[in-house]
Amino acid sequence: MRRDLLSYTLLFTTPVTGFYRQGASLVCDGVPLAPIAAGHGTPLYVYSAATIAARYRAIDEAFAAYPHSIHYALKANSTLAIARLLRGLGSSADANSGGEIDVALRAGFTPSQIVFTGVGKTPAELTHAIALGIKAINVESSGEIQRIEAIASARGARVTIALRINPDIDARTHAHISTGLKTNKFGIPFERVKAIARDARHLASVQIVGLHNHIGSQITDLRPLTDAARALAQLARELRDEGTPIEHLDLGGGLGVSYDGSPVPSAQDYASALLPAVRDSGFAIVLEPGRQIMAPAGILLTRVVDVKPQDERKSFVVMDAGMTELIRPMLYNAFHRIEPVVERDQPALAADVVGPLCESSDTLGKDRTLRNPQPGDLYAIMDAGAYGSVMASNYNRRLLPAEVLVDEGAARLIRRRQTLDDLLALEV
Ligand SMILES: Cc1ncc(COP(=O)(O)O)c(C=O)c1O
Questions:
Q1: Cβ proximity of 174 and 218 under 8 Å
Q2: Residue 123 Cα to chain centre, angstroms
Q3: 351, 363 Cβ separation under 8 angstroms
Q4: Tens digits of per-residue pLDDT, 164-189?
Q5: Assign residue 181 a region: left if phi > 0, alpha if psi is -120 to 50, beta otherwise?
Q6: Which of 36, 109, 130, 358 would you call most buried, defined as having the most Cβ atoms within 10 angstroms of its Cβ?
Q7: Atom of ligand 1 at shortest distance to CA of 117?
Q8: What residues pair up with 139 in beta bridges, in sequence order?
Q9: What three-state secondary structure class fits 165?
């Protein structure tokens, strides 16, 4: 096909998805955001179903040539409708607590589609996972293996586990979301794995079927992911040769997204970085993406409450959303673009965009330029679909925000706003 004809065809056959402008207005999958905010109030999370589907499929297609399963990391966003949507797309689930296991079940995932990761699994959580017969418990220590063995043998159950390895590899991401270094609390030190696997081979109720690692999140330099996958594959080969019946390598999540518009690796780049490291081993792989699927698929809508001078140069723009709705800027110094929902050609104002909470660190964006913001104006905090609503809190007795999913042209409420009665119902 001629190139100009090809781009013409693409223009009219590829639906535009996600958050983009139609004229001055920001829309989600073609649906304007201003009426959604007017109908449901702010702060409000809005998600694009089409973006979630496209980003899930991009990973699935990138790995299509190799045996793989995608276990969406529920910790990124586990609102039931989102979990159900991903299940419908063919995803399996990675749960990080008993609560996430139960949410996965309610979303329709079967136990055999669930892996359970977590650095401090309680006896009750382990008992629950064992009773369900989930696909694998990703274990963190020899002590945890002993606890699993004790629970399983008392129940006459047989449990399949994967050893979570700490490869001591620097993911070159923010220190708070780096998990693969010796100094991080996660996993079994690499050099101790063989001895632990040898001991576990004699256990009656526990079978090691996989190795797991997750070296961090928001990783945009693929080299550490390749190194970790290669180390895991080599170790798995050696364990298999010694008689441990390894079936899969769980390569965790971690692929980063672009919060500021700078280029980042694609799902295809990710597959090209991981597959050569594991292909010769022949082991099936498990992937646990969270952020990669969800971050760009959601925004947080918020209104300006106040504008006040800071000094001669700069102002504070106070929003009705803050660290209680989106803690990432405060927790990790994370950057999110802040966009007016309706763009106006107005004079520029230098500002720190802050939340309403009683904490100086309650900031959404430092040193931003906004166009003459006025109380009542609606703004979108972009790329807030992952680690946004799941980390929301009730600090200052603030109520959890509502959430809306835009799907096939309709905006559907998928979580109503919390009420004070919901909150106080827990108190006796
Ligand atoms: C064990 C595990 N798997 C998967 C993920 C998802 O990571 P990401 O959202 O960076 O893909 C995390 C998040 O930190 C994790 O701890």
A1: yes
A2: 26
A3: no
A4: 999 888 878 887 777 778 888 889 99
A5: beta
A6: 109
A7: 1
A8: 163
A9: strand
